[in-house]
Amino acid sequence: MRHILSVLLENEAGALSRVVGLFSARGYNIDSLSVATTEDTTMSRMTIVTHGSDDVIEQITKQLNKLIEVVKVVDLTDGNHIERELMLVKVRAAGKDRDEMKRMADIFRGRILDVTDKSYTIELTGDSHKLDAFIAAIEPGVILETVRTGASGIGRGERILKI
Amino acid sequence: MAEKLTGAEIVVRCIAEENVDFVFGYPGGAVLNIYDEIFKQDKFKHVLVRHEQAAVHAADAYSRSSTKIGVALVTSGPGLTNAVTGIATAYMDSIPMVIISGQVPTHAIGQDAFQECDTVGITRPCVKHNFLVKDVKDLAVTMKKAFYIATTGRPGPVLVDIPKDVTQHTCAFEYPKSITMRSYNPTIKGHSGQIKKAVELLLNAKRPMIYSGGGVVLNDAAPQLTKLVRMLGAPCTNTLMGLGGFPASDPQFVGMLGMHGTYEANMAMQECDVLFAVGARFDDRVIGNPGHFFREGRKIIHIDIDPSSISKRVKVDVPIVGYVKDVLEEMIGMIEQGEKRPDVASLKAWWTTVKDWQSKKCLAFKPAAADGKIKPQAVVQALWNATGGDAIITSDVGQHQMWAAQYYPFDKPRKWINSGGLGTMGVGIPYAMGAQLANPDATVACITGEGSVQMCIQELSTCKQYHIPMKIINLNNRSLGMVRQWQEFFYGNRYAESYMDALPDFVKLAEAYGHVGMKIEKAGDVEAALREAIKLKDRLVFMDFITDETENVFPMIPGGKGLSEMILAEEL
Question: Of A51, A79, A107, which marks where a domain is finished?
């Protein structure tokens, strides 16, 4: 099953590679990973999207907690949460594609950030499924380039991950 | 105002502050400033090894055989890469130690400088934690953190990488008395509710079984374990790493378990109704195939300091995270204060079954004729006789390691030093060096084989320099015995590269290093030779026992099989 793990860790050189190294050393999957500092610059917040059986997710959580620099680990999928990912897609926008791409961007509430005679660069935000859906909805041939940030997640309501 | 010191002085002062007696190491460019400060001080001694791997092994054994912490010091680049095997070995067995490595100057990092390597990157997967100190102001705190992390929670090796310029820079020195880290707070106190559940399960058990591992030795919990086992009246087994955690001479001891464990220990693990795991981690060499190990209805209680060791390979019913010593003490207290006692009638019936398994005498082997080929098992037994069972025994890895574990029963912890997790050949001599320096009055014997011993044979030179009077028991069967055994059983007797041709004359080799060498070829000469060697109290004696090369280690569980699927000697 797909899980979203939120990790609060010390903002120190090498902390990220410890997390990534742990996943590769123990054969766990990383579907996506995003990380940046928090409002407290000594701390980073990481969102890892992974999948595995309950036993594997339990081990991942325990192994993450074992890393000296990790302060807290929460499985967001244990409760209500919000998930967002940003995607930039450069698409061919010439001839009949031009109107079609504009329409698709509107339907998915995307924004066109950059325009040339032949292309649009569209910004899309949503949960990962929505971004997948956009990719599936447009013709593969028109996609010139995509770049995705990986999901960021946060608990709903009173669920707070902080020290 | 705190005094101003150079980074090198700070390193040396921190080591002294931690009451370290010995640092095992090898100098080189990046650590010259530190060595210069070592030269000027007299708080601790430095032991110069002949290869960095041995420095780490010796420091590791220093930790294993005492309650002090081992420290190793190596230079950058190859100094560090040579040390990696030692670090990984200590990591797999959760041994507290601190490794200090030199690094090229901070401005040269990343420039492919001479003797540069990414030390923090290379060692990351095989240390509990590591640090690169880029500013001398962080040095003292980092050193304190290293010792703190290494010795608390689940212990392990911690590495501090120090660039050369940091050892030259100066700053005010103050060694922190204690340290707190917001990101590192291991759970050390077991949950009382869980502990109560465990006690109830054990007292109501019909067929209880106690299985203890290296955690009992590392946490110095042997007295508590012994007391509790006796209160419960249950059979007790130790893992390879846990030998000595419960006295082998106690009638409740059923021997080591696992791939080469006793029939009774393995059967009792499988057939018990309540299994109590104490500081052990159900690894593949211990329980074999986890699917086969599973038994409907059997309850498992597991104490471990590391939550990730719990329910990793085997689902546990009552997990308890904490220091085993404290948890065991709490359990003892609960039983003492409560009314409930173990069920004597059930225990009696259970012991009848266990004794039936014991009557198989799975460790029996055919004795040799007095002028016949030496049986390796008999050498270990003779060593036990000659040392009164009270020596510190180190071993390398292979058949001799298993025979040592099987035929040298340990009554006390920290007497049996071997590489259980990583299975590192070559540890025997450096382990004996570290153990002898930590226990100068003890008899230290290294049980090894002609394969393993050649992997760190250069340390005979270190032993000469520091007058380390270990006894080396070389069980020489002219082959990589455990490999040969597997090839005999599972590879149709095709002995691919397991035959050791062109062996050195070990007697001459020992003599060349300035030690005493002995060659023993007849079964009748074994014990007398051992007694003679042990009498040479101040000398290292290399005893080359020419053993029966056809001997195999029994019982044996083939890889991937279950605990009750042992091959016994009699079945062949």
Answer: A79
